[in-house]
Amino acid sequence: MDEITRLEYLKIMGVERWSDRTMIEPNTATIKPNPMENKPIIDHWESLKEEVIGCQQCELCQTRTQTVFGEGNPNADWLFIAEAPGEQEDLQGKPFVGTAGLLLTEMLRAIGLTRETIFIANILKCRPPNNRNPKVDEIATCYDYLIRQQALIAPKIIVAVGRIAAQKLLKTNEPLSKLRGVVHHVDNIPLIVVYHPAYLLRKLSQKQAAWQDLQFALKTYQQLQTA
Ligand code: URA
Questions:
Q1: Is ligand 1 within 6 A of the CB of residue 100?
Q2: How many other β-carbons are positioned within 10 Å of the β-carbon of residue 136?
């Protein structure tokens, strides 16, 4: 992104602060219960990736260009979870590489994070045609991949990006306006809800609220460090 565009995004967010963090080595495996045999089985990052790449468990495999597993540091403290890949993500196989992605990158920088230090995943690993909302059965089918990603990453904090991710992760139909500004917990991990950058691009009037959400997420994380 050129400097002018970047400053434009920062202006949208109403912020000017950023810094870099370094990358660390990924986790390799996690143990999870095998519901069929009641014995633990070992899950691996690379085999999970391969499973997602070859997934044909729902009809989205027929329309996708490629799956979008997620990107970043598989050992990250921060796990950002959004909805589903869009057109650019489907073409490039990476999350948040379209216009909303540029804004997300700037939102991250604003609280001192980079895409390399966090992990970004979506609830769905395949693009719904024409970016329609994910169907209930698609979410149900794909969700196991996200649970396994979360178990392997073992994040300290989860950020639900946008309404669809927040509602699914928190198993609620509450509107996003009621979910933000509160520390929720999923599997004992603090979870903060923030506006989706695509929504912010449509509704610039919410930029102040979005900035507050990010500050709140950062404060929650910092409190974890000192607890
Ligand atoms: N919107 C999302 O929810 N996820 C992406 O990866 C890109 C856009």
A1: yes
A2: 9
Question: 86 CB under 6 A from ligand 1?
Answer: yes
Which single residue is written with the structure tokens 């990006």? 161
Q: Which fold has domain 40-226?
A: Uracil-DNA Glycosylase, subunit E (3.40.470)
96 lines ligand 1 (CB under 6 A): yes
Tens of pLDDT, residue by residue, the chain (227 residues): 666 665 666 565 655 444 443 343 445 566 655 555 555 567 899 999 999 999 999 999 999 999 999 999 999 999 999 999 999 999 999 999 999 999 999 999 999 999 999 999 999 999 999 999 999 999 999 999 999 999 999 999 999 999 999 999 999 999 999 999 999 999 999 999 999 999 999 998 998 999 999 999 999 999 999 97
Closest atom of ligand 1 to 196 CA is: 3
Which of 66, 88, 73, 167 minimizes the C-alpha distance to 121? 73
- Containing H/E element for 106? helix 99-110
Rounded to two decimals, the pTM is 0.86
Q: Could you tell me the distance, in angstroms and rounded to a whole number, from the CA of residue 202 to the centre of ligand 1?
A: 15
Spell out the domain ranges in the chain.
40-226
- The continuous run of DSSP H or E covering 30 comes out as strand 29-34
120 Cβ inside 6 Å of ligand 1: no
